[in-house]
Queue: 2 jobs
Job 1
Amino acid sequence: MHSTEHKDEVIAVDADEGTLEEVSPELLPDFAVLSADTPRLQVAHWVLPAAIRVGVPIMRVNAQGVGPLAIPGEDTACALCDWRERVDALPDGDRLVDYRRNVQLPRTVNSATISTEVAVYASLAAQEVIHFLTGMAPPNTINARLVARLVNASFERRPVRRDPDCPACGTRS
Ligand SMILES: [Zn+2]
């Protein structure tokens, strides 16, 4: 059973000055949603390992969908597992990632998500958080990512496999 107490503290951790391990355990959230996208291709590599290390369940939400939900201590894939699998599926995926990491795109390129899709994903994410925290239903994002296709009003649940070599949740050292 997870705590449902309201917590209004904002936890800010300077990447250079401290780590989540230094935050008092009672101040850690019951759940984290990763929706930040700046700095591009880096923020997930900072936040996901930290949350998993201190035992905070974390779910990604972005323009590619909702999930996966990583639950520390359980056999669940995280967003970096999903990321690695998707990069590996691309021809020259690693080169493409290096290119995108190094190229400076105009700010408008980072804001291309269509607002109606954002609203759908926000609702799906909120429902997932409610399912997890209350236990009223199993979350749909465990080892999966929910993708909406508003052009034909459809939803898809795409499986995500846990990567044993994942830098955030991997079990191999
Ligand atoms: Zn992972």
Job 2
Amino acid sequence: MAHGNGRVCRRNGPISSVVKDDIAGLARFPRQPEIAKPMDVFLILVHKLADLLTSQLPWAIGLAALFTVVSLFPSQACNPGQVWWKNPGLLTDTHYLFIIPVLMPYLRTALVVLVVALASGVTSAADVEDFLTKGRGPLSTLHPVAQGAIYMLGTDFMLYWAHRIFHGRNLWPFHAVHHSAEHVDWTTSYRNHPVNNLLGASLTQMTMVALGISPEVMVALVPFDILTAAWVHSNLNWTLGPLKYVFATPVFHRWHHGPVHLGGEKNFAPTFSFWDYMFGTFYMPEGELPEEYGVDDPDFPKDFIGQMVVPFRQFIQTFQRPKPKADSPGPAE
Ligand SMILES: [Zn+2]
Ligand SMILES: [Zn+2]
């Protein structure tokens, strides 16, 4: 009865007291996780992810700086005449750096985690904590180190195939953005069309979160992803000797940015070159270094806005034309 009376009082009381009660209810929310509303769960998830992200960001910036310094040693350069600060594509890369900044891998991870968390029915604050540290799928019971290893191998395998699909006729215009760099350097690693990001990295991450890989493990590995991407694009002549069959190297990936007949349709793996060795797409001729980079389409835009927009038009054109013509985009790199 007391409860009933309380309700009557609230209904009949001044509006301000009703609002006060509601605010008090919200303030109590963290101590009463079982009554969380979907929006509250969403906000807690965002807050928790933001904590994780800010703690990792200094690592990413430090690693990018490290590779900048390393690239300053000409004796180690794959293409000695090309230094990153004279890269004709630097302005375009800078747009990607600022507009799709270093934070992008984290934001992408955050988005993926949010989608999977909501899809798998995370309904309380306690669930959020649990989901962020343990995940929910079958792999969530494994030790974080094992999860990290599975994540690295699993995503690399999926990204290898996603990359091959992006070199196909229809999706090529979006990936051509990445290949449009005529001087490949560490900043090229940022030059990716959002569609390429979403259908590549985001989909693979989503699969991993759904399988139970802890978002904490994924976020912890983001600096490794940034480091690898910057390193394989840096202007270095490093091949790692026999380990070239295990790890992607600057020379390995620079061949991928070359003309089709010289490795442009080879070396798809982001981190582990043994996928290419296994699937017959490995290309690293002994004693040779790649020299030419870019797309075989002189009309492909060189500026950021053009590179954001034109791939959509070219993508539609790939469905309109039954056969590629001389002026249409194609997997030329
Ligand atoms: Zn490619
Ligand atoms: Zn690349």
